[in-house]
Amino acid sequence: MSSYQDGSGPAANYAPNDSRxxxxxxxWVIAGAVGISAMLVYTLTNFSTGRNVKVDNQVELRSSPAxxxxxxxxxxxxxxxxxxxxxxxxxxxxxxxxxPAVAGLYGIPVWSFYVNRGQAxxxxxxxxxxxxxxxxxxxxxxxxxxxxxGFRTFLKGTRDGEDFFTEPFSPRNARNLEDDxxxxxxxxxxxxxxxxxxxxxxxxRVNGLITSVKYIVLPEDTFGALVRRTNITNSGNSPVTFxxxxxxxxxxxxxxxxxxxxxxxxxxxxxWMGVYQAGEGTTMPFYRMSTEPGDSAAVKIELAGHYxxxxxxxxxxxxxxxxxxxDSEVVFGRDTSLxxxxxxxxxxxKDILSNPQYGDARTSSGFxxxxxxxxxxxxxxxxxxxYGKADHIEGVKPIADHVTKAGYVERKFNxxxxxxxxxxxxxxxxxxxxxxxxxxxxxxxxxSLRGGMPFILGDLDDDxxxxxxxxxxxxxxxxxxxxxHGDLERDYNAFFIDDTYFSQGHGNFRDVxxxxxxxxxxxxxxxxFDVQMFLSFIQADAYEPLTVEAVTFTxxxxxxGATIASECTSDTTSATTLTNVLNxxxxxxxxxxxxxxxxxIVLKV
Length: 605
Fold this sequence. Notes:
The chain is α+β, with helices and mostly antiparallel strands. It has 17 helices and 24 strands.
């Protein structure tokens, strides 16, 4: 009997691959074949050979032999690992897409949308478009605004005695595919699209620099973040010295539901905005409003905030945080269009970092500042940046200490790919056509994100483990990773992605129904669960609900809840608290795990 037939499936062996402590987690034994698939992605060529270059006495950087340019040749549609490749992406007709917002069962998802303009990411945040870090805009506006209000990189330096200032991926230097003249001296830009990542690359022959940027949703950790890694390589034949600003031109604070306010009373909203520091200097900025600007009689003090942590990534050494420039006027001067970095052009990085910044009552930026770096021919450096949310300013430093550990960033980029591959393995297809093989995974991805992927909970013993939903009432089914199909082109849909473990959002009735049609094929142990659920939705007038919410669980017998709490906790206080949680009403797995952490319930399982 195959693993698909007996209900285990390849994804039943999926386990989060990290070493973080799980003392505050309920242990769920998960079975069932699940799958998530993906679009195809580019992995940046690793230029490292082990030589070192010193930068401000902070960290040793990777280097490689000098790059040699050859005459440009058309790239294949897919690379050697069947990842999708788009040449001259910012000169092609517009398109919008998204990262899957799958952070694993024990990860915190971030929604993010990207377009083939600027540095790709058009908006991202937590839960819904109401809680953005970079404001959500419909596709038509995203195509216009992303190159200016999104991620930007500015490089100011010297090579062979000549000064230069450049902005990789700037629309000013984009090629025009309708122009037949020679454009070989304009930067060559390529986009690579994949399962949990998007990458862009620019080759600048004039300045002898190769810049690439890769994004992922952070997988399997106790906090959520969009991770950005910018790699800069000296592709020239002589040393280059430069300073850099790399980051987000507009970074929204935490302050309740913001989407309507940002679009209709954005100037008034700025009165609540501020940038605070989680430590000394400007290495851990914390973006929040003083209070939530809701129209109510009660005033809610805002404690949560968005953070930005950036550092030079190293596989061998713990990193030091880079200073962050959050004052937009320091970067752009009086250019309120954000078209050019006039402030950075006029001042040295040393002057910028030594002068005060202002982040109150204005929309701020978030740029990692790199001062006076020298790269020999072929050498490269990587700036890693984490954009996320913390419930309190005191929560930022532990996150910083965690992400700056040697090799952490590389492990997470690898884990993001391995996780998706593991969840996709149930539909892995190998034919003579890699296009067909990729289509199978892509279709399965669509089904999975629309309908959710079934996970089996409740494998308490062998009897339960070898039973299905219909045979043993202890076997429970929970669909994770689903959401309504909101994106930049479907701007009318109010998507929601719960920022908890076992994340799930609601979906349209029709979408969920049609996209769970193969559940019983890949996860036979769900039995008649889906059939029973949808039959129960039929109303007396023959109508059905518009949306389907995530399943909730309820402990029917309070004595059972007390017994579970007593057996799972290490002290009487934790047992009492967990008993109240379990017997307090319906809950979802992610909500239960979040409460266990928030209420400091100490588990012994």
